[in-house]
Specification:
Number of helices: 3
Helix content: 10-25%
Order of helices and strands: EEEEEEEEEEEEEHHEH
Number of strands: 14
Distance between the termini: 82 Å
Shape: elongated
Largest sheet: 9 strands, mixed
């Protein structure tokens, strides 16, 4: 968990408040909503959590950036890195084992309550169903202002082949860019067909 400056982005954003459960038994940070990620990479992975009976299906990993009110009343920008995306969980989990070198859980008296002690300051915690939690305001990433057609993408990246286009389209969509059309559309690219054409020999005149 680190402080950061908000990056300039060409994506449309909408403010949203999410809740993190401070979990001393979780092995990884896990978020349940794809839209809260500021950086994202699609992966396929499975993990077992002691508190969850079912295997957690991980579909991505990345960073969640937002702002949090600290104990001193100041709202600071924070980024939580190495967060797994798992849509089949019910709560966002902040793993204490992942941040033990940067933060610690402090259980104070009734006046001070529980706090998450970090290098940037203390974060006050509330209790939800017996679990310690805190809120974070994130910029929910929406669609990119610029949509791109698959044929235009094919041309801008130097006319790659079909398999390369499939991977490129997946990477673009993982970053929430809208690629319109099917990869099969580039099979009829006139430029590609001309570049593969073979000149026929001249007819020999007797």
């Amino acid at each position: 968990m680190t402080e950061h400056q908000n990056p300039v982005s060409d994506k449309t954003v909408e403010a949203r408040r999410i809740t993190w459960i401070v979990d001393t038994g979780a092995t990884h940070h896990i978020a349940k909503d794809r839209a809260v990620f500021s950086e994202f990479q699609a992966i396929q992975h499975q993990i077992n959590q002691a508190q969850v009976e079912d295997i957690i299906q991980v579909q991505g990993v990345g960073s969640v950036a937002g702002s949090i009110y600290f104990q001193d009343g100041v709202k600071r920008d924070v980024t939580i890195t190495n967060v797994y995306y798992a849509p089949n969980i019910s709560k966002n989990l902040l793993s204490m084992s992942q941040i033990r070198q940067k933060a610690s859980l402090v259980i104070g008296d009734s006046a001070n309550g529980a706090q998450l002690k970090t290098c940037a300051g203390n974060i006050p915690l509330t209790q939800q169903q017996g679990l310690f939690a805190f809120d974070m305001d994130v910029n929910e990433v929406g669609d990119v202002a610029l949509n791109i057609n698959v044929q235009s993408l094919h041309e801008k990246f130097g006319h790659p082949g079909q398999s390369a286009m499939v991977n490129l389209k997946k990477r673009m969509e993982a970053q929430k860019m809208r690629v319109e059309g099917s990869v099969e559309d580039v099979l009829n690219c006139q430029t590609c067909q001309l570049s593969k054409a073979v000149r026929l020999p001249f007819k020999t005149v007797p």
